[in-house]
Amino acid sequence: xxxxxxxxxxxxxxxxxxxxxxxxxxxxxxxxxxxxxxxxxxxxxxxxxxxxxxxxxxxxxxxxxxxxxxxxxxxxxxxxxxxxxxxxxxxxxxxxxxxxxxxxxxxxxxxxxxxxxxxxxxxxxxxxxxxxxxxxxxxxxxxxxxxxxxxxxxxxxxxxxxxxxxxxxxxxxxxxxxxxxxxxxxxxxxxxxxxxxxxxxxxxxxxxxxxxxxxxxxxxxxxxxxxxxxxxxxxxxxxxxxxxxxxxxxxxxxxxxxxxxxxxxxxxxxxxxxxxxxxxxxxxxxxxxxxxxxxxxxxxxxxxxxxxxxxxxxxxxxxxxxxxxxxxxxxxxxxxxxxxxxxxxxxxxxxxxxxxxxxxxxxxxxxxxxxxxxxxxxxxxxxxxxxxxxxxxxxxxxxxxxxxxxxxxxxxxxxxxxxxxxxxxxxxxxxxxxxxxxxxxxxxxxxxxxxxxxxx
Length: 456
Description:
By secondary structure, the protein is an all-alpha fold. It has 17 helices and no strands. 74% of the residues lie in helices and 0% in strands.
């Protein structure tokens, strides 16, 4: 571990008065110099940061993925068609992707603690507004605004992970963190599966209250960077120059992110990963109730099983990346995406009406699709280094959420015209395209910190 100049955590943009709550936490004098004690302090804070950020990002899902369970009831009670509901998902996803990218620039040089908490509070407010609405226009406006503030969730997590964990263990630790996606999405569909039976509006009010409580928890437990608590910066990572200007940062981004061919390939491949992921997550309850004739409460559990299986897939994917492929996440993505396509094909062609068989195949699809869902961001972060991790993940995320054009409005329109059979066949083709793209990422280096790398 190395001791960076104090300005490493304070350099960056000039913050206007009302944005100073996002100013990076300043470095404090290093009070612990004994290597054993430094390691002990690091382990304490790493566990705390990892747990808090998992809980925090899971809460973001409570106020983002609650709509999927409410949709079948809203469609019936309010007379809103599938194409309109799909349009809500698409506009939300597109704005979320742009926000994730734009906030990535800010997230790389903003205080992760306050940035993450404020975004969660704003998302809770948008959910309350959505739950109080009844007109399609109001639904669209509030869900689009929710998409924007949701983009404040991932960038601070990218900053936290890449500052608190070394490149050698980032894939493993970030895969553990990435379980927050499935934990949040799985729990909220189960919760809302019961709330929607009482009143679909509760699917927005109750998660909003939970999000507000978690936002307070984040302010109490998160800390920005190791120097902000008197610890040296993580060894082997990049530290911003002492007098980094805006132009310096833009030049670094251009070289290490936007002209990096492997990050660009990962971004495009992520479009197809997320098309599959959100097709199941957003439309799963509708698919299972309308095409498989499953009760809505059971459908919630089946979609949750898809998410829970994804947790195992993420954890194994991170371990394989670090231990088998030496940090080269693109290689693991190739294998996972191909197997996700096989699982989707079997689910599509399954002739048995058994809920157990359908759930098993859905779990296999979840296990394999969440490997690349986690590893694309991890790989991009390592290639871009911790100076530009949030921007790189935001860049790949922008492509990911552009996928809602297909998974939201596109799939809703396809089902209205041709049925669920055509939609499932299309997802198999999407998996095949993603597999081909990941094959081109195979030669990528494990990270961008060193000038030379071994060629294994």
